[in-house]
Amino acid sequence: MQREPITSTMDFFNAVSDEMRLKILMLLDLAEFTVNEIKDILDIHQSNASRHLAKLSACGLLKDRRDGIKAYYRLSEELLMSNRILSVIRDAYGELPDKDVLRCRADQVLQERTDKTKGQIHKLDQAGGSLKAQISLFSKLMQPFGNAVDIGCGEGGDLSLMLANRCKEVTSLDCDPKVISGLQKIVKQKNIKNITPKVADMTKTGLPENFADLVLMSQVLHHATDPRLALKEAIRIMKPGGTLALLDLAQHKEESFRTTHGHIWLGFDQSQLEFFVKEFNCRVLESEIIPSENEVDKKLPVICMILTKN
Predict the structure, then answer these.
(1) What are the Cα distances from residue 83, in Å, to 32, 35, 36, 90, 275?
(2) Are residues 96 and 165 in the same domain?
(3) Contact yes or no for 255/308 (Cβ under 8 A)
(4) What angle do CA 45, 49, 51 make, to 5 degrees?
(5) 76, 93, 116 — which closes off a domain?
(6) What is the spatial distance between Cα 42 and Cα 211, in angstroms, rounded to a whole number?
(7) Is 119 helix (H, G, I), strand (E, B) or coil?
(8) What is d(CA 151, CA 268) in angstroms, rounded to the nearest whole number?
(9) Which of 68, 177, 209, 286 is 20 to 30 Å from 235 at the Cα level?
(10) Are 240 and 275 in contact (CB under 8 A)?
């Protein structure tokens, strides 16, 4: 049996036996948060929040990324790859009596981030939206498809409109009602009959299982509070033998994108994405990193992956 990155030592049990630290782990299982956000959600002093974060970090359970005086904390990759340990932790914080209240507060914080950046997400001229990356993705999708789903279609629905020429039916999803309303107007003006815009979260699409021949996720996964659940949902709605086309930023250090673009995750490592999908009965057909075209405009390197459902 392969040894997991994190083992259940005395320090580990000491770290996770505290209720407040379990609450912190629960929050960071949803998304990355700053110390200030954590202390506000939990209603504790910043010094207490920092002390608990230091204890969890010392055990390898957390990682942080710096942006000036701010520190964004997340669950470590080592913890996410330690299935047994992660399962124990999730079972433990599942028993917290106020878990639903805390999740509601966390959702409010994340919603405030999203509200500040609506209308900037998923445009082709934004970070990671280079023409080279888009061409690389669509060159792998030249064959026609039946049902296609564009998750996180974004303002203007650029990729949904492209898919409409190659697919019988396209379902365009976005969590922002204004985005969907705008796409509905475009579809009506262009008299496009095979695009159905719909308001939906990427982790809860509301679509039936085995629905789509093609699922497209372009520049959206870094906005997911839980990328693993977003990928799980995308794969759930795919037909066996269906295709998932994924385009997202490679791991980077542009902390400013959290506020300017509403990013929750600062890109991904290829192995990290492969780790997320390997448990969902999928295999990677192609995976490549596409270099940046223009560093000045922060069109960062992106990862292009084509997956199929077994």
Answers:
(1) 20, 26, 29, 10, 11
(2) no
(3) no
(4) 115
(5) 116
(6) 40
(7) coil
(8) 18
(9) 177
(10) no
Q: Would residue 4 count as lying in a domain?
A: no
Q: What is the dihedral of CA 283, 77, 204, 157, to 10 degrees?
A: -80
Domain count, the chain: 2
Residue 240's CB is within 10 A of a number of other CB atoms, namely 9
Separation of alpha carbons 64 and 48, rounded Å:
17
Domain extent at residue 198: 131-309
Distance (Å, whole) CA 64 – CA 215: 32
The tokens describing 46, both together, are: 């910043």
pLDDT digits (tens, 9 = 90+) for 47-87: 999 999 999 999 899 988 776 677 889 888 888 878 888 88
DSSP structure class, residue 289: E
**Tens-digit pLDDT profile for residues 226-257:** 788 899 999 999 999 999 999 898 888 887 78
List CB contacts of 83: < 8 A, sequence separation 6 or more: 4
**What tokens appear for 289 in the block?**
């990193």
Q: Closest Cα partner for 272 from 256, 257, 250, 252?
A: 250
Would 263 be classed as within a structural domain? yes
User: Are 219 and 296 in a shared domain?
Assistant: yes
